[in-house]
Design goal:
alpha/beta; single chain; about 45% helix; Rossmann fold; six-stranded mixed β-sheet
Length: about 450
């Protein structure tokens, strides 16, 4: 993988579409644009130009819209050409193959973004923000990726590094220039600065608990007795008739899942078999699977028939129905409520609903979204969420600074404290990519799309 190579790749997914984009980056871009587009004069930089791309035999391939960026002013830092052609996979393949025949090579996954990072156009957190935008599964994940791409975490790391360098410089001065006319060494100032940094780094590292929820989403199990309205609730949350609804009890024998629409986070609702005593072998097997889904879910929606006595639930389910991880949906609110319902699950929040025609779907979605944030299963809208990689570096930096603080307590060991500060700086540098770790970069960019 060399920056002196010219690379090419389709930047849009394979398949038929109205348009497709082919990206080319490297020193051959000027000659490629001249030869392929048949232009004696260079393309005007950053201006869309309509032309016909011709192969090496002079045969027309497709009419394209070409945009060129000169080295130093492109995303990658090198000469870049983007060709927008018609979205026929055959046309895309012919353009790519022609560029390859003219001396380019296929780009590896994430190589365009890696070039931008190596050229200093973006830091490593911004590169991860690019991947986050592509793979985001919900609005909250998109917002988190935008914050990374905007450099928010990079600016925080720069601020932490500056503060750490100030504290470390005080320690280093007394080590390197003990004979100079310096103020008497007082470790309390650097120790206080390090304590503040430890608190901040640890706090941001803790946000990584939401990283998996942003990337993969959450699973919410819809549980309850037969005929309580579980399938109706799943359909209301999904916005479509995903599950069969019938007045006959026990129609759901296996779990069914569907994405919940209208939430800022990717959430999958899982409709489960009704839980009751008895039933045939198939129904009992379905109930066993229901309990497994309930135990593995991030959150539970317990649906009850508010017009009937409270259901007798298996102990395996009731042990999972804990405050903060469950919401009771009192269905059939259009009917008189059974007197015993008020004493059922008093510690679990409750929402009344009528699932007959989905009229309360939006209200339930909103309440579920609030409950997921309140349960600390999902991040707030304004919360910066770091990845597992970032959190690991932050925790190592915080641990090193905690060690440095201990070395500043009696007996003061300034040299050891300064060494720990350097360890913390190295860990912070890993977040934005100041440390040259080729294996780490290979692993990170391998998860990107080809053409990005």
């Amino acid at each position: 993988m060399s920056a002196s190579d010219t690379i090419v790749a389709a930047a849009t997914p394979s398949g038929r579409s109205a348009l497709a984009v082919v990206r080319i980056d490297g020193p051959l871009v000027p000659s490629l644009s001249a030869d392929g587009l048949g232009r004696s004069a260079p393309l005007t930089e950053r201006r869309a130009t309509t032309a016909v791309w011709r192969d090496m035999k002079g045969e027309p391939v497709d009419q394209v819209v070409a945009v060129r960026w000169a080295a130093g002013r492109s995303f990658t830092g090198g000469d870049t050409l983007e060709l927008t052609c018609h979205g026929n996979p055959l046309l895309v393949r012919r353009i790519v193959e022609d560029v390859l025949a003219r001396g380019a090579r296929m780009a590896e996954p994430g190589e365009f973004t890696r070039r931008a990072f190596l050229a200093g156009r973006i830091d490593l957190t911004q590169a991860e923000g690019v991947a986050g935008l592509i793979h985001a599964t919900g609005e909250r994940a998109l917002a988190a990726a935008r914050r990374l791409l905007a450099g928010e975490l990079g600016r925080l790391v720069a601020g932490w590094s500056d503060r750490l360098l100030t504290a470390a410089a005080t320690l280093e001065a007394h080590i390197d220039f003990p004979e100079e006319d310096l103020p008497e060494e007082d470790p309390r100032g650097p120790a206080a600065a390090l304590a503040s940094l430890v608190s901040e780094l640890s706090g941001y590292a803790g946000t990584a608990r939401h990283d998996a929820a942003l990337r993969a989403g959450l699973r919410v199990a819809v549980v309850g007795a037969p005929n309580a309205g579980k399938s109706s609730l799943l359909n209301a949350l999904a916005g479509s008739a995903r599950a069969l609804v019938s007045a006959e009890a026990g129609t759901t024998r296996d779990w069914i899942e569907a994405p919940v629409g209208g939430l800022p986070l990717a959430v999958t609702a899982v409709d489960t078999a009704g839980l009751r005593d008895g039933g045939g072998a198939v129904e009992r097997a379905g109930m066993e699977r229901s309990l497994e889904q309930a135990e593995s879910a991030h959150f539970l929606l317990l649906v009850v028939d508010a017009s009937a006595p409270p259901p007798a639930l298996p102990s395996r389910l009731t042990s999972a129905l804990v405050p903060g991880r469950c919401l009771v949906v009192s269905n059939k609110s259009d009917l008189p409520e059974h007197p015993a319902q008020s004493a059922f699950m008093p510690d679990i929040p409750r929402i009344k609903a009528c699932l007959l025609d989905g009229r309360d779907a939006e209200r339930i979605r909103s309440r579920l979204s609030e409950a997921l944030v309140a349960a600390d299963l999902a991040p707030g809208a304004e919360e910066l969420v770091v990845s597992v990689r970032h959190a690991d570096a932050l925790r190592r930096a915080a641990a090193a600074l905690s060690d440095a603080r201990r070395h500043l307590s009696a007996p003061v060991q300034t040299e050891l404290a300064a060494e720990k500060c350097r360890e913390a700086l190295d860990a912070l540098g890993e977040i934005v990519g100041r440390i040259d770790n080729e294996r780490m970069l290979d692993k990170l960019f391998a998860s990107f799309c080809i053409g990005k």
